[in-house]
Design goal:
The complex is a heterodimer of chains A (320) and B (284). Helices cover 75% and strands 0% of the residues of chain A. By secondary structure, chain A is mainly α. Chain A is globular. Chain B has 284 residues and is mostly helical. The longest helix of chain B has 37 residues. The chains are: A mainly alpha (320), B mainly alpha (284).
């Protein structure tokens, strides 16, 4: 418990560093005033806006002010377009990104376990060979291209799924419409994820299947399916959990572009627009949120280790 | 030198038996030749020239991969794009690897406060996704090919640093390093003559696989309009234009996507093959 607390506390300097790094990057990206005001704005107008945004102050003071505001839940206002406050907009968009992430993860995990288990029933067999080739192709495929081709096939040609958007209302209020809109982006993000998950799970299943306790279980006369599911799969899950952690991180990364491809109204698409428009407050908020999720996922993975495998301890030391 | 050539020979003997790896090598060499040929076959004037009367044509004998919205030949533009993708892949890896090698070796060898500083910076940069970091750096520097290269190089150095430092930490304990120290070798000499040459195998494998990552990331940046600017053809940029035209014309995104897929597959196969060939534990 103490160690868990220590790990959580260690996240603070890292997140602090992330915020300094991004603040500095956005500061050197140029003056946002030019894009905020019309081209014929007077000197006084420019000065007034610079003052309002505190751009007339040195960078370390601006960072201090941002940090102070951030601690009070105020992430500033967007520089572009509607000038909306960032924090509420972030919260408004978060559910869409989570919705896509959770469904994708569910789909990818299911697919990868299924394919891996079917593959190791007969290693080197026809199914295994085909699966390995397909996995290799998906690992090399840019997600946004797959997305475009899926839109062409399933939306344009067959008309099965809508090509873009999220569906009306909240998820629970209108499940069929949401699932239809989720299908293509979730498949796009999910197959790449499933490919890397499947590769690791297959390797670790093969390793476990050669161990003594599996031989014992077989010798007891248990059916090969029972051995595979009850004994082997459970023990093969450890490397799988590590990778799932990395995968959530990969999903965050993938969703940045995939949300743009499918006009999915989440944080990824918002971030891309903000980065292109040099909208510093939005970029800061988005990057920090990503870093928090990323670090939290890593922590949860480390904790899950100790649950799945009691031999692993958070401090890496021997048992007391 | 003789020993080095001998070990190279054993690696090649192993590598040669691996069909997939040879396939990867062939793809990569063919792409390199295509990229070189593009200087003659696809000069910038040819890939930028517009011919609106022939816009949005499906593949034909005159235009093997069809034409885009300005009537430009997609095949020629893909050839030109190969030049850019390979260039970005190699240079981004070279930048990232050089920084990572320098920081990782020195941090691992000297330890102490320097190690702490380097690893803290690495941790911070690894605390958010690679592509997001590259995006933020490109946005800060402004969109262009050079800046995309720089961003991809900078965004990737933390992973090299961590890899190199880990290897150096274990190599540092080897007897021959102690021997070199006793013989009075300077820290620089130990790092450059003894530690870094021993990392070559690891770095070649990792670097080859990272070329794939860099090419995919460059395509992503270009797709978002943050890479080389039009009318310079990039595979990612062509996909982005293709996305805008899927309602009228379905051919456009196909070939740039296949080009990326083929290239990344080639480097992945080559990297996996090199790993197996260089690893003394795998025998086929």
């Amino acid at each position: 418990m103490q160690l868990l607390l220590k790990r959580i506390l260690l996240m603070i300097p890292t997140l602090f560093g992330v915020s300094v790094l991004v603040f500095f990057l956005m500061a050197i990206s140029g003056d946002p005033v030019r894009s905020l005001l019309p081209a014929d704005a007077s000197r006084e107008q420019i000065e007034a806006v610079r003052k309002e945004l505190h751009l007339d102050k040195p960078i370390y003071i601006r960072y201090g002010m941002w940090l102070n505001d951030a601690f009070h839940g105020n992430l500033g206002k967007s520089y572009t377009g509607s000038n909306l406050p960032v924090a509420p907009e972030l919260l408004r968009r978060l559910p869409a990104t989570l919705e896509l992430g959770v469904i994708t993860m569910f789909f990818a995990t299911l697919l990868s376990v299924l394919v891996a288990v079917l593959s190791v029933r007969k290693p080197g067999g026809a199914f295994d060979q085909t699966a390995r080739t397909v996995i290799f192709v998906f690992l090399a495929m840019p997600g946004f291209w797959l997305g475009i081709e899926l839109i062409i096939l399933f939306s344009r040609r067959l008309g099965w799924f809508p090509p873009a958007g999220q569906g009306e209302g909240s998820f629970w209020a209108n499940i069929p419409s949401h699932l239809a809109h989720l299908a293509l982006p979730a498949i796009t993000l999910g197959v790449g994820t499933a490919a890397s998950l499947c590769r690791v799970l297959r390797a670790s299943l093969l390793e476990v299947l050669h161990s003594d306790f599996v031989r014992t279980a077989r010798a007891k006369g248990l059916s090969s399916n029972v051995v595979l599911i009850r004994h082997a799969l459970r023990n093969a899950l450890i490397p799988f959990i590590t990778l799932s952690g990395l995968t959530i991180a990969g999903l965050l990364e993938g969703s940045i572009i995939i949300e743009s491809v499918f006009a999915w109204p989440g944080i990824g698409q918002w971030m891309v627009d903000a980065i292109k428009g040099r909208d510093a407050p939005v970029v800061m908020a988005g990057v920090l949120l990503t870093a928090v999720i990323y670090s939290a996922v890593n922590l949860v993975v480390d904790v899950l280790y100790t649950v799945v495998d009691p031999r692993v301890r958070l401090d890496g030391g021997a048992g007391r | 030198m003789k020993e080095f050539l001998l070990s190279l020979r054993t690696v090649w003997v192993k590598f040669r038996r691996d069909k997939a790896a040879i396939g990867g090598l062939i793809i990569v060499v063919a792409l390199a030749i295509a990229a070189l040929l593009s200087f003659w076959l696809a000069p910038f004037s040819a890939v930028a020239a517009q011919d609106l009367t022939n816009a949005l044509q499906p593949p034909s004998s005159a235009h093997w991969m069809g034409t885009d919205q300005f009537g430009r030949d997609v095949g020629l533009r893909i050839l030109y794009g190969a030049r850019i993708s390979l260039f970005v892949g190699f240079v981004a890896v070279a930048i990232g690897m050089s920084i990572g090698l320098l920081l990782g070796t020195s941090a691992g060898y000297f330890g102490g406060w320097w190690d702490t500083v380097v690893m803290r910076i690495t941790d911070i940069m690894l605390a958010f996704p690679f592509l997001l970091l590259a995006l933020a750096i490109t946005a800060a520097l402004g969109p262009s090919l050079q800046n995309a290269l720089l961003a991809l190089g900078i965004a990737s150095f933390p992973s090299y640093t961590r890899l190199v430092r880990g290897s150096v930490l274990s190599l540092r304990e080897e007897n021959y390093i102690d021997a070199a120290k006793v013989a009075g070798a300077s820290a620089n000499r130990i790092m450059f003559r003894h530690l870094i040459p021993n990392l070559f195998g690891t770095l070649i494998v990792y670097g080859t696989l990272r070329v794939s990552t860099a090419i995919l990331a460059e395509a992503g940046l270009s797709y978002l309009g943050l890479g080389a600017q039009p009318p310079t053809p990039t595979w990612g940029g062509m996909l982005s234009e293709g996305r805008d035209y899927i309602l009228f014309f379905e051919w456009m995104p196909l070939f740039p996507g296949l080009a990326i897929l083929l290239t990344v597959t080639g480097f992945n196969l080559l990297g996996d093959g090199l790993r197996d060939a260089l690893d003394p534990k795998t025998r086929k």
